[in-house]
Design a protein that fits this description.
3 domains; three-stranded antiparallel sheet; 262 residues; single chain; mainly alpha
């Protein structure tokens, strides 16, 4: 075992970041992005799925502060809002694509880093699988007693993927509704049925977002639960036209601030 264990865990940064459009933005963009990556959950925790985290504008502003002598410099709220908007929806002509999605919640927002599972999995990087193969070969020859314990005891990939979908979908539902639904066998059955029909995690989140907006505050709110949202009407909910004005993150945040002052 290493004598220099580093507490707090780690994240992976792809070298593709060098070619990313964020490198041509002001330095604060990259600082905010790395901070968001570091804060994102590595695994399901208190309803927050892997790659997600709850934060707020004041928290990001405070985290981005720095010292100039004895003076503390902080970015403005508008600067942070512009960065969050860019990460959510890069300007027209960008090849970067959305880097995260956000959902407004009480006293802040929840963000989800897109493609988190892709970039935070060492198995997806060139050279890693070759190294693992060599280590496994050494272990089989008796020259390595415990180096590969986490490799040889890996669960079935399909089982991991299925459990991950259940956790992410129910976790997202709990975040949006502030509920404590469990991934029961009944819930898993509804989710599995929709997945077999081709539904993705993004589809589940879209239905949750759409029906949450339509039903919350009405008599239909009591039906905001897994068996209703993910039941046989799932496809019709998914394909409903959404004519509601899609507010920018800036507008949502300002609305939230006004509500708290009332």
């Amino acid at each position: 075992m290493s004598e220099h264990l580093v507490p707090g865990g780690y994240i992976l940064l792809s070298r593709k970041l060098i070619e990313s459009e964020i490198m041509s933005k002001p330095p604060l963009y990259l600082k905010v992005w790395v901070w968001l990556l570091l804060k994102a959950q590595h695994s399901l925790y208190k309803g927050l799925e892997r790659g997600s985290c709850k934060t707020s504008m004041p928290q990001i502003i405070e985290a981005m502060s720095y010292k100039v002598g004895y003076r503390t410099e902080k970015p403005t709220k508008r600067e942070i809002q512009k960065i969050i908007e860019w990460l959510r929806n890069p300007h027209e002509g960008s090849t970067t694509g959305n880097m995260m999605v956000t959902t407004k919640v009480t006293q802040g927002f929840v963000y989800k880093v897109l493609n988190y599972n892709v970039y935070q999995d060492p198995n997806n990087y060139e050279g890693y699988n070759e190294k693992v193969t060599k280590e496994q070969r050494s272990a089989n020859n008796g020259s390595n007693n415990n180096k590969n314990e986490t490799i040889t005891n890996k669960p079935d990939k399909n089982e991991v993927k299925e459990e991950s979908i259940h956790s992410e979908v129910i976790g997202y539902l709990n975040i949006i509704l502030d509920t404590k639904f469990k991934a029961t066998e009944t819930c898993k059955g509804f989710i599995n049925a929709r997945v077999k029909e081709g539904a993705t995690i993004e589809d589940f989140e879209k239905v949750i977002d759409k029906k949450h907006k339509d039903w919350k505050g009405t008599t239909m709110a009591k039906y905001l639960r897994p068996q209703t949202l993910f039941g046989t009407k799932f496809d019709s909910y998914l394909n409903e036209k959404d004519d509601e004005h899609v507010k920018s993150f800036f507008e949502m945040y300002e609305d939230d601030q006004r509500e708290e002052k009332l």
